[in-house]
Each structure stands twice: as structure tokens, then as C-alpha cells.
Specification:
Elements (H helix, E strand, L loop, with lengths): L9 H13 L10 H12 L8 H18 L8 H16 L33 H7 L6 E7 L3 E3 L5 E3 L4 E7 L3 E9 L7 E10 L9 E6 L23 E7 L3 E6 L4 E8 L2 E9 H4 L10 H4 L22 H14 L5 H13 L3 H16 L32 H13 L4
Antiparallel strand pairs: 1-2, 1-11, 2-3, 4-5, 5-6, 6-7, 8-9, 9-10, 10-11
């Protein structure tokens, strides 16, 4: 990677203006070019032309190019996408950037304590734990997690397996809104898994402006949807920030002003969610704010039966298949708790080995976020379910004819413009 030419400082500004303009049109069919644009703008904000920062421009441009390649299939024919691709090529040429090299800059130094992320003269309300300590109180924390097929662990440590296809609210209180969107995993089953997670941090006093974070399959940005990484322009804005733990696979959001930690991961094609939140914040809602899966669990008619698990067998699952699934899950989950049995359930239902990672990471997040180590493992489900909510094993499906797939794709792309 060489140093860039310095005789055209306007080139970067042109691409910045271009990406802002390209953020205006609506992009359909899951084309994620707008997120690529916002991530690039976030990565290059504050950089100047020339000197050592040319290296950082090259890093940002390679990351931008990588992002456009990930969304290339969904963006075919999209003007914003093709304009961005050509703009990246021009700037990489101008800066003499190699196409091979790092796509992430050096990790920022980690603060020695959470308080370091908040200005020393920021309002006390922007640090929840510090504010409570000054009142002589201590926070009581709760945990909620969603992973796999999906399996839900509520704030009260109830453990459920649900169908909940489509968009469902996990949390809806005065400070935070979290929604998960689940899609079918296999057509022969009612099993679903999370493909999209939307989190809204609501504006709070002198601390943060409203910020929206959105993760989708193959797109876990290290920034909010507006390209920023903290709570905005308010004095306590650094009490909210996004941190990338593993590129494209694991992000963590710290909201110190409400004492909350959020973890979003991708395992295979699907997402997992985990949160640590004070009880006081969890309970800050009006009764008319509606359903919250993390608080009340899934509706009874959306829960799924586990008759095929825990040695009870299932008429559609041969014993050798159950044993093989259990053996694979045992590698990652040696304790036969509900995370282990969730793994077995998911393997028998989908045949997708990535669900073993989903269960494993969900349990690891419990160990990090749950306040009571005696409750890390759960061994009993919340309740038995009415008949008819069992999940049959996956069967092989014949693919749709190619012409029909093209027709469906055309309809999908046309609907937003009708």
C-alpha cells in the first residue's frame, strides 16, 4: 500500500458529497448500499488529506469496497450502488491504495474504567451506576437473550422456544425499544430464526439523542444508522457507544446512562441478541405499551413443543439422529442444560451446524451479562404446551424453478414503487 497523491484534495470531498446524495433515494430488495455509505462517512469523518492519514483513507476505502461486494447481488441495477462502486475505484486510484490490505484500522485503546467513556464534567444522570451510588443504592440487573430457532430467555429466567414469525417487540420501555424479525428456517417446519434486529435508544435529558441501530444477516455495522458511533451532540453523548468485537460477527453497545449492555452476534445466517439491564429500567413502561417478549415471554399459541428432546423421543426422529445431534452439541456445550437441548432441537429441526454456535454464544453471553452465576444454567422449561405446537424434522425441499424465482424477485423489487 503506497502513500496517496496529494494534488487532488477535492476527490475525497466529492465522494463524501456523492455518498450523502445517494443516501436520499429508497433502496429496495435488501440492497444495503446506504449502510455502506454511512459506515464510510463515519470512518473518514475528521480525516484530512495527505500524510499518515492517507493510509487511513485506504483502509476506509477497502472496507467500503468490501461492504459493496457483500451487497452486490441485491443491488444489481441500483444507481446508488453502481455510482458508489465507481467512486471507490477512482479514489483508490487517486490515493494509490492497494486492493489487498487491512479493512479495519487499529483498535482504539480501551478505557481503564467505564467512567472514562463519559466526560468528567458530564451530567451525573449520564452514568447510571455512579448516580445510584451517590444515592446509596445499588442496581439489580436482569438479563434477556434470544438465539437459535428461536429460543427465548426472559428477564425472569423463563426459557421458551417460539415460532414468532415476522417482527416482534422484545423490549418496549421509556428508554429503549428492541424489535426482532424472524424468518422461516425450513419450509417444512414452523421453526424461525432472527434475520434482523432493530434497537432504538430514545433521547434522554442531557445525555443522548435518539439513536437507531439495525443489524441484518451479513450486515452488523459498527455504527448507528446515521453513521455515528455515540449518542450525538449532547454533553453526555459518550455515555452511549457502539463497539465492534469481531468484524461482521459480534458488536456490543454500551448505554451507561441507563446501565445497559447489548450484544448482537451472527452465527451462520442468523442473529442472536442478549441484554443486561437494571430492573428499574426494565420496569419503566406504561401498561399500554404492548407486548414485550423479554418481559412476558411469547404468547402461548406461539410456543413450540419439545417432545423430541430430553430423552422423550419423537416419532419422526430416528434414535441414531438424536444421538448424533447430541454428540455434536456436546462438543460445545458439555452441560446438559436447556442451551444444550436447544442445540439438539435446532440440529434436528434444521440440520444446520451453525446453530451449535448460536447456543454456545448465547450461554457465553449469559456468563458475561447475568448477575447471578447460580442461574447461568437452566434445566427446566417454563411450561408444557398444548398439542399441535411441536416442530417436525426438516425434509428435503425441491428448489423452485429458476423462472419462478426471477418472477418473485421482480415482484419484490416492484412493490415499493407501486
Amino acid at each position: 500500500m503506497g502513500m496517496g497523491r496529494r494534488d487532488d484534495p477535492s476527490g475525497h470531498r466529492i465522494l463524501q458529497i456523492l455518498t450523502i446524495v445517494l443516501c436520499l433515494p429508497a433502496v429496495s430488495c435488501q440492497c444495503r448500499i446506504l449502510k455502506c455509505n454511512s459506515e464510510y462517512l463515519s470512518a473518514t469523518s475528521g480525516l484530512h488529506q495527505g500524510g499518515e492519514e492517507s493510509v487511513e483513507f485506504c483502509v476506509a476505502l477497502r472496507a467500503y469496497s468490501q461492504c459493496t461486494r457483500r451487497t452486490a447481488r441485491a443491488c444489481r441495477g441500483d444507481l446508488a450502488y453502481h455510482s458508489a462502486v465507481h467512486g471507490i475505484e477512482d479514489l483508490m486510484s487517486q490515493h494509490n491504495c492497494s486492493k489487498v490490505g487491512p479493512t479495519h484500522g487499529p483498535a482504539p485503546a480501551q478505557p481503564t474504567s467505564p467512567d472514562c467513556m463519559v466526560h468528567s464534567d458530564a451530567p451525573e444522570t449520564c452514568n447510571y451506576e455512579k448516580s445510584l451510588a451517590q444515592q446509596g443504592r445499588q442496581a439489580n440487573y436482569t438479563h434477556c437473550g434470544l438465539f437459535g430457532d428461536p429460543h427465548l430467555r426472559t428477564f425472569s429466567d423463563d426459557f421458551q422456544t417460539c415460532k414468532v414469525r415476522g417482527a416482534w417487540p422484545l423490549i418496549d420501555n421509556s428508554y429503549l425499544f428492541v424489535q426482532v424479525t424472524n424468518v422461516a428456517v425450513v419450509h417444512s417446519s414452523s421453526a424461525t430464526a432472527a434475520s434482523k434486529i432493530t434497537i432504538i435508544f430514545k433521547s434522554f435529558q442531557e445525555c443522548v439523542e435518539q439513536k437507531v441501530y439495525q443489524a441484518e444477516t451479513d450486515d452488523l455495522p459498527a455504527a448507528f444508522v446515521d453513521g455515528s458511533r455515540n449518542g450525538g451532540d449532547k454533553h453526555g453523548a459518550n455515555s452511549l457507544w457502539v463497539a465492534e468485537k469481531s468484524g461482521g460477527q459480534h458488536i456490543e453497545i454500551q448505554a451507561r446512562y441507563i446501565g445497559t449492555t447489548v450484544v448482537v452476534r451472527q452465527a451462520g445466517r442468523y442473529l442472536t441478541f442478549a441484554i443486561r439491564m437494571p430492573e428499574e429500567i426494565m420496569n419503566s413502561f406504561e401498561e399500554n405499551q404492548g407486548l414485550q417478549l423479554c418481559l412476558r415471554g411469547c404468547p402461548t399459541n406461539e410456543r413450540m413443543d419439545w417432545a423430541l428432546l430430553q430423552g422423550r423421543g419423537h416419532q419422526d426422529v430416528p434414535a441414531h439422529r438424536s444421538a448424533a445431534a447430541a454428540a455434536k452439541c456436546k462438543d460445545k456445550l458439555p452441560v446438559e442444560d436447556l442451551y444444550f437441548w436447544s442445540c439438539v432441537f435446532d440440529l434436528l429441526t434444521t440440520g444446520d451446524m451453525n446453530f451449535t454456535l448460536a447456543a454456545y454464544y448465547a450461554l457465553e453471553d449469559v456468563k458475561t451479562l447475568h448477575s447471578n452465576k447460580d442461574k447461568f444454567h437452566i434445566y427446566h422449561r417454563t411450561a408444557d404446551l398444548p398439542p399441535g405446537n411441536s416442530c417436525p424434522e426438516a425434509t428435503v425441499r425441491h428448489p423452485l424453478p429458476f423462472a419462478l424465482l426471477l418472477l418473485l424477485c421482480w415482484i419484490c423489487c416492484s412493490l415499493p414503487h407501486l
